[in-house]
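Sharing a chain and its predicted structure for anyone who wants a worked example. Both blocks are below, sequence first, tokens second.
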Amino acid sequence: MLIYMSNSAQSERSTPRHSVSVAGAVVRDDGRLLAIRRADNGAWELPGGVLELEETPEDGLRREVLEETGIHVEVDRLTGVYKNIVVGVVALVFRCKPSGGTERVSGETTAIQWLTPEEVSERMSEAYAIRLLDALDADTPHVRSHDGRRLLRVR
């Protein structure tokens, strides 16, 4: 029989597990923002996904944007950190500029469009639109929490 012994006190709460994702707020010279329509739920979002263990955030971002859109990007700066409190995902969003490639949909996307800030607000849920709009703000990075659709207000 194995018996596990520890000198540390047992905690009643387990350590929370979070997933880290990266997303690109890709801004063209004319101010339009890159958006994708997801294949799994039809929602408009910015391109991105889960960061692999061996990747730097910037490398993961370049990979995700290229996989989902066919567009190569140059990473500029971190513009926000966003936590979905329902599913435990922390997203790092970086402002980028396109640097080549050819726009195309993938198995994860059904459409790619360059939107104005007004169109972003109309098409995306608040939790995703704010990520693109924050990237236009020079006073970054922002730190925000949401429930998957709506921002949680700071108390």
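Comments welcome. Residues 1-8 have pLDDT under 50 and may be disordered.
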